[in-house]
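Board notes (copied after class):
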Amino acid sequence: VQTEVVASSKPKNVVVSTTPGIGVTVSSSDVVHLAVSSGTSSSAGVQPANLTGKTFIIDPGPPSRGATDTPMEVQRRLNSLLEAAGAKVYVTRTITDTGAATTPEGRSLRARTTSATAVIGLEVRTGEPGGLALTSMQSLKVPSAAYLGSVRLSQALVQSLTSLGTTPRSSEVPKDPVLQATAAAGVRISLGSATDKKDAPKLSDPAWDDGVAGAIYVAIANVYGSK
């Protein structure tokens, strides 16, 4: 068991969330992460928000072979922040998933079963330019509510992630099975490239994971939080 203290309005030492989630079968060699409340509602500059009634799907792509599971580490932190703000969170991959369950198609099946406010994809790329990057679905001839919501969320993410010291690239793509699985707004965040020497230290740094998760949370709170 690995325990992490997170900002939460819940009483101190109360478990806010677990990874894997409740009901997931694990073996004796697996690591279970517990996010435990610090008893405070904000830390590291992250202000509390009211996301009660909102539902978010987090889609952590699989890690590169032999690399730190950065998408899952960021997911775990973001999950804790969102749940502490009153939101419901569904995750498309667990640390015990293998094979087809980790593919975009496998993860999209889980996303399809949930009615979400928004979808946040997390991935680490290989053989592509490094740095943070955002992708969202291209618009049809008549922009849908999901497309317009994705543009708004993407703009908020660019603004908040820029606080980490670099401005993320932003683009639209014709296909993303997980983002297309729901009618909700959705943005996929590339946390960096596993083959970029400048990204490698960040992708194995828990402080970087904290910063990214906090920045994503700020963007979500700005777009969906109750005033």
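Comment from the instructor: The longest strand covers residues 185-193. The chain has a mean pLDDT of 88.
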